Amino acid sequence: VGPVTNGHDVVFHLPGGERIGGSRLLLAHASPYYERLLCGGTAEDVGGIVKPDPDFSSAAHLALLGQLHAMGHAPLPASLDVRLELLCLAAKVRGAPSAGPDAVARVFEQCERAVRKSLCAGNCLMAVLL
């Protein structure tokens, strides 16, 4: 995942205008949500262009795509704000449990643990308001 190159077969047009290239095969393997989105006869499947949910920042989408390309084993973002947003994004795209690998579920669990460890009296209101 990264700047668009000829090696990418899917392009994400992020809310901030940034374009990120990815691998349809890796994303479909990592998550049932992306498998349906990219391999199910949708407009995204046909054109290879995905416009992700504009309710989430480019940083959250980039973090999720990086995690999925690493099957949920990439480091989490350092910022608590982005971790909280990534947690919400992962919760939104996380589907029903599947028989195969589901990196979104792994990302969700990692974020949830990291956010719980990071919460304190000074930042817990931010988590509640998100």
Task: Please summarize what this structure is.
This protein is α+β, with helices and mostly antiparallel strands and 130 residues long.
Describe this structure in words.
The structure is a single chain. This protein has 130 residues and is of the alpha+beta class. It has 7 helices and 4 strands, in the order E-E-E-H-H-H-E-H-H-H-H. The chain has helices spanning 24-30, 32-39, 43-47, 58-69, 80-93, 103-118, 124-129; strands at residues 2-3, 10-13, 19-22, 49-50. A 4-stranded mixed sheet has the order 1-3-2-4. Helix 1 (24-30) packs across helix 2, helix 4 (58-69) packs across helix 5 and helix 5 packs antiparallel against helix 6. It starts with a strand and ends with a helix.
Number of strands: 4
Distance between the termini: 27 Å
- Helix and strand sequence: EEEHHHEHHHH
Backbone CA Rg? 15 Å
Mean pLDDT: 82
Largest sheet, spatial ordering of strands: 1-3-2-4
Q: Structural class, judged by helices and strands? A: alpha+beta
Helix content: 40-55%
- Unreliable stretches (pLDDT < 50, length at least 5) are none
Described by strand count, sense and barrel closure, the largest sheet is: 4 strands, mixed
**Per DSSP, what share of the residues sits in E-state strands of 2 or more residues?**
5-15%
The helix count comes to 7
Shape: globular
List keywords for this structure.
alpha+beta; 4 strands; 130 residues; four-stranded mixed sheet; 7 helices; 52% helix; single chain
